[in-house]
Amino acid sequence: xxxxxxxxxxxxxxxxxxxxxxxxxxNEITYDSRTGQVYKIWLLNLFMNIITLGVxxxxxxxxxxxxxxxxFSLRGDRLEYTGTGKELFFGFLKxxxxxxxxxxxxxxxxxxxxxxVWPAVFLLPFFYVIPVAxxxxxxxxxxRLQWRxxxxxxxxxxxxxxxxxxxxxxxxxxxxxxxxPYSDIKKYQHKIKNAYYGDTPFSFSGNGxxxxxxxxxxxxxxxxLLFIVLLGMQxxxxxxxxxxxxxxxxxxxxxxxLQLFSGKPVFITAAAFILLPFLLxxxxxxxxxxxLIHEMINNLHAADIGFRSTVTTIALCKxxxxxxxxxxxxxxxxxxxIMQRNLRFFAEHTQIKGDLKTSKINQTASQKSxxxxxxxxxLDLNTGLI
Amino acid sequence: MGLISxxxxxxxxxxxxxxxxxxxIYRANLHIKTPDKSLExxxxxxxxxxxxxxxxxxxxxxxxxKTPNARLYIEPENWxxxxxxxxxxxxxxxxxSTSWNYLIGYAGLSVIFILGTVLFAPxxxxxxxxxxxxxxxxxxxxxxxxxxxxNPLCVAPxxxxxxxxxxQKLQQGMKRNIAFxxxxxxxxxxxxxxxxxxxxxxxFSGILKKADSVDEVAGVLAHEMAHIEMNHPMKSLTRNLGIxxxxxxMFGNTGTISNTAKLAGIFNQLHYSRQDELEADQVGQNxxxxxxxxxxxxxxxxxxxxxxxxxxxxxxxxxxxxFLAYFSTHPHTQTRINKLKTNEIRATNYKKTxxxxxxxxxxxICADKMGFN
Lengths: 386, 373
Hints:
Order of helices and strands of chain A: HHEHHEEHHEEHHEEHHHEEHHEH
Largest sheet of chain B: 7 strands, antiparallel
Distance between the termini of chain B: 95 Å
Shape of chain A: globular
Radius of gyration of chain B: 36 Å
Oligomer: heterodimer
Radius of gyration of chain A: 26 Å
Low-confidence stretches of chain B: none
Helix content of chain A: 55-70%
């Protein structure tokens, strides 16, 4: 009996014989989820959350993750998400006393010594909540993701990541955003250095330095555009009294300046001076974003396998603009569609380099995942909040 | 024996090597082998665990209890042949169906839940306010007043005495025994008064300044005391908290949808807030009547408020449209005046709330001021 999986594999290879021959080392990621099914799961979650006052959320989220992860495949081998709703639920229960433990000392401090040093000291743990939650959520999700029966995992100290996250945030602020590329890359590097596929470590050879050119260029454009916006605002406030004086001179006293403001050329000019720079600014920053994605993906390796991104600024711009209009046009009902667009975009623009048939990656052995390891568990809040 | 077999994908869970295998269905077990027989596994049916049933085009995912990392992926079209062979224990727990019939059912149920929340939850949460001890209520009120008032207080002794006298008279008609703490705040521009939990009342001096007669002030005071009599501040606190918490739990952070729900929640809160106001108007009227004070004072004060509102909108005499009241914490002023008039009972045995001297002392209460704290 002919194997279905063999046939499927053969079809894809026959469909693109030229591509395969020319570039046998490029593998494309397939994302074959059906938007209808995503919508059904999303609607089920929406209704069940109403009925169960949100308790179903952990199970609903898991179901969506399972379906979406299972829709990704590489050369016929699908991803699998093995997380459960119960894990998320208990993670959430665990997070409550931790958050309470952070909040209570702060509340007591503000009551005993209002506006003093102590409340500020007890405020510090709040800064840690977001990076700790981000890293531990990533750790949880990777450990529940597998391909060809081998799990991914994320090692490393959550606290170290949080320190790095806060330190880079501080540097971003005092450097007025100039050091942003270094921060973006450093944080990414920390995650990659601790990420594994079975016993195969991921590695990263990128550098923030490579992004400084595009960053500073778009940063300069941003400052220039900000200047134009300020000029535009100046223009509005300056032109108003002049226009009013003209009106009065033409024998139209008592004209309300607010009425004059709307529907007049002054307004259109002002809108152009503010809106247009804003759009250009977003476009300029998308150029940086594109460069950042390329730096992150193209310098990522696992054994003899490499990665490549084909994202372009125009494509990213189309994606973001489309998402924006769907979001405001559908009052939130378009959310699953936006999710689909993002995932499809990722699959379309990410390629795997290397011969998967002979790669060393095939020899990757499973490794016990870092699940129940003391401190990790205490700080790893699989809250399902993120 | 006609052997059923089909191709599938197998991963041993130890190495990342994919195997294209042939699966053969036997009576009590599944035989898995590669064409060259370099790999052969026997999975008894009672050992098999279904991780996920197929959702086309995704395969069914199976594992064996003894080797929980191993995976057998079976394409949807081959699934039914195997499914029939597997014992009940192989199947995962409850999985909610996503078929449209069920979804419509869930949608109907959630509509019922939302309606239930809108209709019954407010009263339920109001009831919860009774479980809060008096001392806590007092603290909440103190905190609310402290955080919302920054102007100095008016504390001229004679004025205070007049105020106390008025409060005492009105208190005679009340069922709840409450130690009132009435403060006059120096703010001549504000025509307003507040009632906070724990019997904390605040009157802005604008009311004393603009009022034509002592009866108008008594009307305003009676309205605020009626809020306390009916426990409105605490009720609205537990009600608003309860409703917003329920909506947050129901809709979570689903972006625009949860924001829409929050907005609906705010409209719901406003609706109840307006109901409270109308109730306080009515109960206040009763308090005035029981204290033998002319109850038309409150209505007269509202007439003044209406004029003031109109003046603020640059001399435009027309009232603001009635439908806008749906966006407000208070009912439309004209509506309140009309309601008060219909409830008014003509009587003649009204006594002056305060004599002329006491009334003048109250008007001059801001002669002495002190900081709020």
